[in-house]
Structure formats: C-alpha cells, structure tokens
Design goal:
Largest sheet: 7 strands, mixed
Strand order of the largest sheet: 8-5-4-9-14-13-10
Low-confidence stretches: 1-17
Helix content: 25-40%
Radius of gyration: 22 Å
Number of helices: 8
Structural class: alpha+beta
Number of strands: 14
CATH architecture of the largest domain: 3-Layer(aba) Sandwich
CATH topology of the largest domain: L-fuculose-1-phosphate Aldolase
Shape: elongated
C-alpha cells in the first residue's frame, strides 16, 4: 500500500538534495522523540538502523528562510503522523517544484545510510570475539561508501571499540570520518582496487600467525615509514596485512576485503580458534 505523505505545491524553491530529506526525517524523529519514542522504534518506523535514527535525532536542525522553514516543518509533522499510523511498508512523498512533480519513495537508504547499517551490524556480530583479538590500542572497524574518495566517506567508531564485560563496546556511534588511521589505510588500498570496502585492525603475534596459516589466509607485510604505512598492488591481492610495528608502534594485523561479510567470517574464525586454545 502506498501513502502520499504530503503534496508540497510550489513550496520549496530550493535544490532537492539528500540533505533536505535527511532534515525532513530528522525533524520527524525529534517530533516523535518528544512523544516518548525510542531510537529503536524510530529506526523501525523509518526503515533504517537504530544508529541512523539516532543520527537523525541528534543532528542539529538547519534553519531555512521563510516560507521554506514553515513548509519543511509542516512536512515533518505530516510525516510524523504517518509514522504513528504504523504502516511503514511503502510511502511516497510527492513534491512539486517549478511545476515538475517529484516522487520520493520511503524508506530511503542512500549509500551513506547503508554503510552505517553495515558497520553497526558488523560490530554487533563481532562483539564477542573482538576482545579475544584486541591489541593494546584497541580495535576499530572502517567501511567505505561505494564512491569513497576521502576520509569523510568512510565510517568508523570514534575512540575505537573497548572490551567491556567480554563484549566490544563503542564509545559512540559510528560516524563518517571517525578514524583517520584506518580510513587512510583503506583509501590507499582502494586506489589499487576500488571494490575493497571494509577493514578491521587486530593484534598480531605468533599465535595469530599460526591461526592464519591454519585457515590458509594469505598475508603480506606492510612497509612502515615513521607513522605511515605503505601499500601497493600486491597488498590488495591478499586478505591480511601485517604491520610488524616499530618504536612506539604496536604490531598489528589488518583484515580487509570487498565484503564486510567475508571480513567478519575471517575474524570469527580467528576468534573461535583463540577460544578453542584457551
């Protein structure tokens, strides 16, 4: 069933961008949060992750000039009404600008939203095994959008993941630009293979080395020049990269791949082997 949320006739003389619709959803989230809705409930209603709903909820609103400001707020109120009706299976927002009709189907998830969903799911899936493989500097995960070209296009956890009670816990939700180090390494790999999308850092020692060999995971060594790590085409032809460390730098293992599912499977195998050896 399709709902027409609101028809805005000649109301928005502005460029219709993803930011505008993010603003619309953010305002709807804030309206419903004032009525007691949780982030989890907001996410389910919007068809996005709880993390994404939280981002909508806590992003400061943009103030537009009138009449755009009032029109956008009215649209948000109308969207909130539809959300409360409980049938979010298929929505349609019809907007007319300069006599041209534009239909936006909901739920809408762009590349950035999907990336945040992936990294949140990856963290949850690996929450139990990450503490078994965590280096002193702690673990982080980074996932790139399809078109990632800079750090701001890569999602990671600010402050990394901290082992608490046997689970890997984030200090805050994943954000784009959340890790300079891991994102930079992922971008360097993507220069040789743009399909590489996910990476995670783990501890590196002889035990981990033996487990990698057991699962026939091919690795390559990274070259370190001070604080910088160098990669080349050969680096992208394996699934594991080893930084042997140096003065002030802890040895590290990086598992990466074209699919976050594949990266998860390798990390799970490593963690299971560590458990079996305990």
């Amino acid at each position: 069933m399709t709902y027409c949320i609101l028809e805005l006739i000649n109301m928005m003389p502005v460029e219709l961008t993803s930011n505008l619709f993010k603003e619309l959803r953010g305002r709807s989230c804030r309206i419903l949060a004032e009525e007691g809705w949780t982030q989890s409930r907001l996410g389910k209603a919007l068809g996005v992750s709880q993390v994404m709903a939280g981002n909508y909820l806590h992003t400061l609103p943009t103030r537009y000039k009138e009449p755009i400001e009032s029109d956008l707020q009215d649209a948000a109120k109308s969207l909130a009404v539809i959300l409360k009706e409980g049938d979010a299976s298929s929505w349609k927002l019809t907007i007319e600008v300069d006599n041209h009709e534009l239909n936006i189907n909901f739920p809408v998830q762009g590349s950035r939203e999907k990336t945040l969903v992936k990294i949140a799911n990856m963290r949850k899936r690996l929450a139990r095994v990450i503490p078994l493989l965590s280096p002193q500097v702690r673990v982080n995960i980074a996932i790139a959008t399809n078109e990632a070209a800079e750090i701001s296009d890569i999602a990671a956890f600010p402050g990394r993941l901290t082992p608490i009670g046997g689970q890997a816990r984030p200090l805050s939700s994943a954000q784009f630009g959340g890790s300079s180090h891991l994102s930079t390494l992922l971008l360097e790999l993507r220069k040789f293979d743009s399909s590489i999308s996910a990476i995670i850092n783990l501890r590196w020692d002889s035990i981990i080395s033996d487990i990698l060999s057991k699962f026939e995971i091919v690795s390559a060594k990274l070259e370190r020049n001070g604080e910088n790590l160098s990669v080349n085409k050969i680096s992208t032809e394996v699934e594991a990269l080893i930084d042997e460390g140096g003065y002030g730098f802890e040895p590290s293992l990086y598992i990466f791949g074209q699919s976050h599912e594949r990266v998860c499977k390798i990390v799970e195998d490593l963690g299971q082997s560590m458990e079996d050896m305990a």
